[in-house]
């Protein structure tokens, strides 16, 4: 019981790393390797035998039709967003500069492997095997993005061990939610307004609520952002901003959907940026630009066209959505974030509610409306290439819009319950040390890791 | 009248931002959205109906022939140059580090939208509509690049409001000049030695001349470049350097021209870099390398093959051009920039005359000479793929070279007059407060924005 | 003799730059330009006449089959690794921050030109001409990578003049070794575990041994890494990490091999990262993560699948290899590097033995074993697309594995002898000033450059 309480007394950046972190990393990686060895196979585009057999059978199949050439440049852009974009975006908090880049690296490297298994298990099994190729790599990176969004809410309050355990739970629930949305409800969400942003944001917000620590003076840290921190953070911002068109278009169908999605996102972001500069100066009493707004809200336009981007949203529609997203994001930073902290005890370190939460919900709504307005007259033969059930005769736009709306509700539910389960597994007081809810979060992690580690008594707790 | 004078008394980094910047951003974005709504349509490669209708008609049209796959990787490289390259390149001036990245972001986000409209209006209308796709995105980014080049000359002397107004004018004139060169004169300028670099540089130099402020001690700022400023600036330099092959080849014809342009640029830049290191050490009394030279002159090789890069310039020719470009650029920084400031009152903050002005003119001349030497014997059936009028029977190399030379003269004229009009709209003294020319620039902006803002009296001027 | 000794008395960052560096750069570039003018031609994919002639003859040849579209995105990723990755990786040494980026830039710009000639000369001549295209550009960047690896060992001990001379020798020997491996022994080494990493590492280690300077207190510099140095270094690390899949797959065959190589590398790196975090914390008495480990060892997974990545290694196999590579790399930093310095007088500034040396050898061994296990049953018709001599009837896996093993031995021999020749041309004491071996290295450079410069007496020595 005494150990338990001590472990609950966390300090910034990882206490007890001595054995817990190394052993957790090694055990997780060994489990991953064993599961990959038993479950994972090359798909037809990456297997020497299958790809070349296939080619011989079909005279029209050429090497340039390998999915690698359609998707790999997009994959690399997404990869840059995950590792450089998310990593450096969070360096604006001077105090957590290196943690944000370093822990981002660790969590992402773990999550993409675990996501490959979970996404394969829930919606990619072929005769008992998970088939992998560049599309599964993109999907794994997408899932990783969701974990990193949640990381943005708890930055400064968690050790890498806790972050890894959070990733185990969040990746699993992400895959379940994705399965419900894409496979059961047949929803469209190529850029992940719902699956990635809404899910990641509300999951993270619940976890940070559970972890609430009254003494964490967030605003002090934020104010200590300095010249170089801001320039490093701008590296993250700019890379996310530039490559968001690749993010939203990475797994859409080939041809016009991929092309259109990239372009819609481009216009949404440009419009969002002007809204961000405008409202950032407007809400400041002295008319000064707030760097935190520029670094974050200018990206909300990418989030908000994550669902509708592949549809015939038009540049006009994209720009309106982007403008709204930038506006609500800045207003969120200014007026909502302080309320969340003071009233709801939600310490949202990086403001993910403003960048991913609200714009994600907006994106889901825009996606539902755009689906409900889709018609064969506008999409022609391309209807089926955007909507899986878009066969001209059977097309029901209202029904599609309804399923999109249900998908948002499901995602919000999964994120809230998932975050609660992950963050506060044992509701109420800890049975051993009578610590309140927030502390029991750490207790669970402690227990989880002691079970794994086995040699509890050898730790320096 | 008193307000007018006060407004003319600008301080570094945006006075009067309180309402002018937000309202200007909002009004501009609303205008953009309305114009996009009425004028812009998806092109055949991005429209669901058109692309899929087209595919059915032609048995040979496949998704991999969508222009997205030919141009999108190049587009992303160009995008990185515009937002990371230009943004960080200017951080070498420690004092303006964040302004350069932040204002770069704002101006670029606005300019690419405005450029889409202007370029579409002047040379991309189809039945009264502007058709957009990845090629229009690249062209919009190119035009934005020109605005950012001009920004390099006035950095530290202008508010974001002024920069936005400059962008409105410059983008418009850029589109007119581009129309004259590409459509009327049939000029080749895929990498924009003339349209982007020469135009942007001389436009910016005239504006900075008009804005001349004797108290601005530029050299002091430059000397204050420090360790980290230089490393941030090198991020900008290196990204521009690496992706310049993509920049020059982004809108050339598919196949050999795109491939050849990228390679010629690669060799020109490599050769230019050695010339830069050589002459930077040579012109320094102690043989030391000057970081400003390395950060800027090493890029001149990309500028100087912007016109001829798609031609059969050969790696040999490219390397000679690159070597010359690096040499004149370093010599310009050393000997010409101080003269421009002291004799002509042109304060070229970032030295754009050395990086874009002279190498741009060199590139135009090299393009004219290479065109004049082009022959069916060397180009074979590829002649028409490089030169629009390259039909074997009608080919007249001397005429083509002549039109290229005329294009340079037109560009210089447009840039000089355009810069003068933009910078010093009201020539002579201000009629209200009798301030000289340089101050009236601000006055115009003031008037322009007060007209827009309507609520002049509410501003804190 | 007095000059000789003086010249041997180098200080950090380039003495005698005044004339030696500029003249060396100019002379080298002039030689390069002349050799390019006489020897280099566009290949069929970049030549206007050849590409378009070819297209007419073959009805199935389309612009999208130009190698540009298969390789250029990979080339750009490799280019980023060479200029940003290697350049910024070495900024973790605060003292050498700018030298590492700046000299990296110079050496790389020279080496890629020289490599084009040397690689063309040894294994790319067609009727007396070297044919260039995007594949030769990638190969030149690869060779440059090898020189930059060696640079990592001698950082802080060499002037740019010495680095350029080292590059002349190393590029030449690289091309000879590559010729022996790929052409004579028919070895597979698409990602360069042997040709790039093993060769570059052991070459550099021998050179740094020859340059041994007892007073260079390396550990002091390393300890002076600070917050911002570490963030800059992480830029290098992350870019190398993200783009390593492109590096290893850049010159493999089109289709499944390129796709598979990228994916194998991705999984190897993810696994390696977890191993790195685990062992970095494990070997530290306080369980703290060592930033130098994170920045370097996490990349070893990419090196170690450089040979076997294109084979049917499976994600499972890749992850095991990555895990081993990360482990030996961290252990190398912790236990081997200090021994190398204290016992063998090898001052490995950036720890290239841990990042490139041992993982490179591991990669060669993995490649040999994977080759020896390759069978038509697993590869099907794809066997020949991975192994040049993989014709089903004649395939002998054991023999292929044997040749791979011989290739490693040859590479080690070439690197050791090459490094000795380059670093210590004149073995023993200097005949003029009786300085020991280490100093004579500089003497040779001095002599080499004086011969070139001709105007020895004018130098400020």
TrEMBL record, chains A, B, C:
GO terms for biological process: ammonium homeostasis. The keyword Transport applies. Residues 64-422 form the Ammonium transporter AmtB-like domain. It is found in: Cell membrane. It is a multi-pass membrane protein. One of its GO terms (cellular component) is plasma membrane. Coiled coil: none annotated. It comes from the Eukaryota. One of its GO terms (molecular function) is ammonium channel activity. The keyword Transport applies. Keywords: Ammonia transport, Cell membrane, Glycoprotein, Membrane, Transmembrane, Transmembrane helix, Transport. SUPFAM superfamilies: Ammonium transporter. The chain crosses the membrane at residues 21-40, 78-96, 103-122, 134-156, 163-187, 193-212, 224-244, 264-284, 296-313, 319-336, 357-379, 405-425. PANTHER family: AMMONIUM TRANSPORTER, AMMONIUM TRANSPORTER RH TYPE B. Functions as an ammonia transporter. May play a role in the elimination of ammonia in the gill. Belongs to the ammonium transporter (TC 2.A.49) family. Rh subfamily. This is Ammonium transporter Rh type B-like. It comes from Cyprinus carpio (Common carp).
């Amino acid at each position: 019981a005494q150990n338990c309480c001590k472990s609950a007394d966390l300090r910034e950046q990882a206490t007890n790393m001595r054995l817990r972190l190394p052993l957790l990393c090694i055990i997780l990686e060994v489990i991953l390797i064993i599961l990959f060895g038993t479950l994972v196979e090359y798909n037809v585009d990456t297997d020497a035998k299958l790809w070349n057999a296939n080619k011989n059978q079909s005279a029209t199949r050429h090497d340039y039709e390998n999915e690698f050439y359609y998707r790999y440049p997009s994959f690399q852009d997404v990869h840059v967003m995950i590792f450089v974009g998310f990593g450096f975006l969070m360096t604006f908090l001077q105090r957590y500069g290196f943690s944000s880049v370093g822990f981002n690296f660790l969590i992402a490297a773990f999550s993409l492997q675990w996501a490959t298994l979970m996404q394969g298990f829930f919606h990619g099994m072929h005769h008992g095997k998970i088939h992998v190729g560049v599309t599964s790599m993109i999907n794994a990176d997408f899932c990783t993005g969701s974990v990193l969004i949640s990381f943005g809410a708890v930055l400064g309050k968690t050790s890498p061990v806790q972050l890894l355990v959070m990733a185990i739970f969040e990746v699993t629930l992400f895959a379940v939610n994705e399965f419900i949305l894409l496979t059961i409800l047949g929803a469209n969400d190529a850029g992940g307004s719902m699956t990635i942003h809404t899910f990641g944001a509300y999951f993270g917000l619940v976890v940070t609520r559970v972890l609430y620590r009254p003494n964490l003076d967030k605003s002090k840290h934020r104010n200590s952002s300095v010249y170089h921190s801001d320039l490093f953070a701008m590296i993250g911002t700019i890379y996310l901003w530039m490559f968001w068109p690749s993010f939203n278009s990475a797994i859409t169908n080939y041809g016009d959907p991929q092309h259109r999605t990239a372009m819609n996102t481009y216009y949404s972001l440009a419009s969002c940026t002007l809204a961000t500069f405008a409202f950032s100066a407007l809400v400041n009493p002295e008319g000064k630009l707030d760097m935190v707004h520029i670094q974050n809200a200018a990206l909300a336009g990418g989030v908000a066209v994550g669902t509708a981007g592949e549809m015939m949203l038009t540049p006009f529609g994209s720009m309106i959505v982007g403008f709204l997203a930038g506006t609500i994001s800045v207003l969120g930073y200014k007026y909502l974030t302080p309320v969340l902290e003071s009233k709801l005890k939600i310490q949202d370190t990086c403001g993910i509610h403003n960048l991913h939460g609200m714009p994600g919900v907006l994106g889901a709504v825009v996606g539902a409306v755009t689906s409900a307005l889709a018609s064969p007259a506008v999409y022609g033969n391309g209807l089926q290439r955007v909507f899986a059930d878009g066969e001209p005769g059977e097309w029901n736009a209202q029904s599609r819009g309804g399923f999109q709306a249900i998908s948002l509700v499901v995602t919000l539910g999964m994120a809230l319950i998932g975050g609660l389960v992950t963050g506060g597994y044992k509701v109420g007081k800890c049975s051993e040390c009578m610590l309140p809810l927030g502390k029991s979060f750490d207790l669970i992690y402690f227990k989880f890791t002691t079970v794994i580690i086995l040699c509890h008594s050898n730790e320096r707790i």
